[in-house]
Amino acid sequence: MTGRLDPLFSRTLPEGDTHQRDVCDHCGFVAYENPKIVVGSVVTHRGKVLLCRRAIEPRHGYWTVPAGYLELGETPEEGARREAREEANADLELHGLLAVYTVRRLSQVQLIYRATLADGVFSPGIESLETQLFDWDAIPWDDLAFPTVHWMLGHQRAFEAGKGVGPFGNPVGAD
Amino acid sequence: MTGRLDPLFSRTLPEGDTHQRDVCDHCGFVAYENPKIVVGSVVTHRGKVLLCRRAIEPRHGYWTVPAGYLELGETPEEGARREAREEANADLELHGLLAVYTVRRLSQVQLIYRATLADGVFSPGIESLETQLFDWDAIPWDDLAFPTVHWMLGHQRAFEAGKGVGPFGNPVGAD
């Protein structure tokens, strides 16, 4: 226990601001809260797509793509490559932005890249139970972890079919 | 002054994590810090581009495009339109993502849209000293507020010249 004051936040509209913020009554410090950036990639290899079965909550046991929160000082591309190393021990080549999604409820913006395996090598990282290349017809659609995984796999298919170059956005009416 | 404990943060690597975090010695709370999202737009109208002269720091008095931090619960497109209303009293039509930049030093990811004025109307908002439509040859290049404003105006020119559809990224070597 120190002699310092605790911060004492009140919800208020700072002068000239457009949104209410938590402002400290003692010192006027404004505690801004900001949306978070998720970076990830749809990784393909010889016509198949790489999925990871989650070893962590939320959605333990369900399938997803390599993705996670962007870290301070990273570019989105660096973050997408780091997540693939962490979750699938995979080195990626990135080929452009497939999609920008907003998950409004979570204040998340997702930047999803098209990628291929640099050398064909992958295996489960510490956050994955298993990693597997799936033919499109064999994708476990009912066991995907998140709605955005459905969206990005559909948009990857659209891209491959020449139905748009991206970046795609949220499906109409979905956020 | 209350009877609560102050948070007592130590810089440490939480189990299973890949980055050091500020973790509270009392309760184990992990204070994640995340990159911030800036949203903005290059707004054109009849071949001219809309710039705003900043009435706020940093870079008071210098010219920029309508842009600012994305708020909780907003889509990037909504944020870009809000910033144009706040800074230039302008309603926008958005036409796609022009660029995704990373300002590594500030842990900022910028999502910049191509836009036009919905009705040709604009005027200085509270954060702007003046707002003006510039011919390309008349842009005050030496008085632009930030390097990214140079980048996005260059990329808008490249787009208009058919030299790429975007989203463009940082110029090579610049972050």
From TrEMBL, chains A, B:
<comment type="similarity">
    <text>Belongs to the Nudix hydrolase family.</text>
</comment>
<dbReference type="InterPro" id="IPR015797">
    <property type="entry name" value="NUDIX_hydrolase-like_dom_sf"/>
</dbReference>
<keyword id="KW-0460">Magnesium</keyword>
<dbReference type="GO" id="GO:0016787">
    <property type="term" value="F:hydrolase activity"/>
</dbReference>
<dbReference type="InterPro" id="IPR020084">
    <property type="entry name" value="NUDIX_hydrolase_CS"/>
</dbReference>
<dbReference type="Pfam" id="PF14803">
    <property type="entry name" value="Zn_ribbon_Nudix"/>
</dbReference>
<keyword id="KW-0378">Hydrolase</keyword>
<dbReference type="InterPro" id="IPR020476">
    <property type="entry name" value="Nudix_hydrolase"/>
</dbReference>
<dbReference type="Pfam" id="PF00293">
    <property type="entry name" value="NUDIX"/>
</dbReference>
<dbReference type="InterPro" id="IPR000086">
    <property type="entry name" value="NUDIX_hydrolase_dom"/>
</dbReference>
<feature type="domain" description="Nudix hydrolase">
    <location>
        <begin position="34"/>
        <end position="161"/>
    </location>
</feature>
<protein>
    <submittedName>
        <fullName>NUDIX domain-containing protein</fullName>
    </submittedName>
</protein>
<dbReference type="InterPro" id="IPR029401">
    <property type="entry name" value="Nudix_N"/>
</dbReference>
